[in-house]
Design a protein that fits this description.
33% helix, 463 residues
């Protein structure tokens, strides 16, 4: 990959300006108020792929938001890499916790990012990381160094469960045929400790509704005489964990794989500073399932968390009511072999069974997906490792992630393809949170590293 650093240096400001323009568009897929913005972003991605050198770029309609497909096919005898990413972003709420407007990107210096970081919703997840691949293609095409075929599939519904992606993939197996899938929607341990994600947790996401009386009641006249849905919901949620923070749903752990002592010891070699971790989060102590370390709790163990809870009066001042209804959104992160649909049903059955007389319970599944583990003994992984080693100067650490990308297992099922997860974000980049950001150094380092994966993958493929 001749002159790649020179090319990046010469085009650095343009690369930043283009990403900033993309980040200005509020492509929030979860909120219909932003539907036109999501569509505008799809067309902006199409234009970017056209300009980067794709021969064909299409806006592929779905029953939801469109998928942007692009390709640069130079020789059918050469390997084909399929790049997946998403252009939709999480809602920015709560807005008052942002230090700047989430859709007016700014670059600020931070302790972790002395060269500056771009603060905006979607900066790291996933517009910034997706756009690294667009610029990497541009470099390889403009300098005539593209060693293989490349396809892009960039969707607009990842943050709401990718509900239309599976149908699109099933209908377009030939169009999407590839030798390996490449995704940058994960992170690495630190800028001086590169890592490759080798495992993802699955996900089951549900919403629960507890209904008591047929209307809100005066808490003085009715308090103590009827069930308060908020009180009941709080008790029900609390019962989902025991004193050891073990999930109490019957059958929940039945298919959970217990890693051997040797495997856990290998994981423990990854650099981790517990005091630094607590300091970064401003917490006095970590918390979780007994018998496991922090890094094990958030990667190889399943979890259950309340993501939102509401009911009754939440406005300014006081209003003494017993609410008619209470609600919560609950997510369960799953490990490989746990089937998300099975877990969703186990949750529904259990949650309904523990409801006391005086209330009714409704469980509404939203979305989910399977966990995934990618083997590290393949030449695709070795190509990724060599690419990181070339640009970072050290071998990357294999690392399991606590996050979920449900479509990875879908790709293997429908396309028969393995996935390589080359992430360049940091845990401190606040994805899904206020003040999300992505380091300028990380963004440019991704653009530098990705072409080496193309080079080494093609060479190791032996074609």
């Amino acid at each position: 990959m001749q002159n790649i650093q020179k090319y990046i240096t010469e085009n650095k400001q343009r690369f930043l300006d283009e990403l900033i323009e993309l980040l200005k568009i509020p492509s929030v897929s979860a909120d219909s108020a932003f539907s036109q913005d999501v569509l505008d972003t799809a067309y902006a991605v199409k234009t970017a792929l056209d300009n980067a050198g794709c021969d064909t770029v299409e806006i592929c309609e779905t029953d939801g938001y469109p998928i942007v497909y692009g390709e640069k096919l130079i020789d059918p005898k050469l390997p084909t890499i399929l790049v997946y990413g998403h252009y939709d972003v999480q809602p920015p709420d709560p807005m008052d916790l942002w230090n700047s407007n989430p859709f007016k990107p700014v670059i600020e210096v931070t302790e972790q990012h002395p060269e500056g970081a771009i603060f905006a919703r979607g900066a790291c997840d996933d517009k910034g990381q997706m756009y690294m691949h667009v610029k990497a293609l541009e470099f390889m095409v403009k300098t005539d160094q593209l060693p293989c075929n490349v396809k892009f599939m960039i969707e607009g519904e990842e943050e709401v469960g990718s509900s239309n992606l599976s149908l699109f993939v099933a209908k377009n197996r030939e169009k999407l045929a590839n030798d390996i899938i490449l995704i940058s929607d994960t992170g690495m341990i630190a800028n001086d400790v590169p890592s490759i994600t080798t495992g993802l947790r699955g996900l089951s996401y549900v919403e629960v509704e507890v209904t008591g009386p047929n209307r809100d009641l005066h808490s003085g006249l009715y308090g103590g005489a009827v069930a308060n849905p908020i009180n009941i919901l709080a008790k029900m949620i609390a019962s989902l964990h025991d004193g050891n923070n073990h999930i109490t749903i019957p059958g929940f752990y039945e298919k959970v794989e217990e890693l051997s002592k040797a495997e856990r010891a290998e994981m423990a070699k990854a650099p981790f500073n517990l005091e630094g971790y607590k300091k970064a989060l401003n917490i006095a102590s970590v918390y979780g399932e007994n018998g496991y370390t922090t890094n094990e709790r958030n990667s190889i163990r399943p979890t259950l968390d309340v993501n939102g809870i509401w009911g009754g009066y939440t406005g300014e001042g006081a209003k003494t009511v017993i609410p008619s209804k209470a609600y919560a959104k609950i997510s369960m992160r799953l490990v490989p072999h746990q089937d998300w649909k099975e877990i969703t049903q186990l949750f529904k059955t259990h949650f309904e069974s523990i409801a006391p007389d005086g209330v009714t319970v409704k469980v509404t599944p939203h979305h989910g997906g399977q966990g995934y583990v990618t083997p590290i003994d393949t030449f695709a992984f070795q190509a990724a490792s060599k690419a990181y080693e070339t640009t970072f100067g050290k071998k990357p650490v294999p690392q399991r992630s606590g996050g979920s990308i449900p479509i990875v297992s879908l790709f293997e099922k429908e396309l028969g393809s393995k996935t390589i997860l080359m992430g360049f974000g940091l845990d401190s980049d606040a994805i899904h949170s206020p003040n999300e950001h992505f380091g300028v150094w990380n963004y440019l380092k991704g653009i530098e590293t990705i072409p080496y994966f193309y080079k080494f993958f093609t060479e190791m493929k032996g074609i």
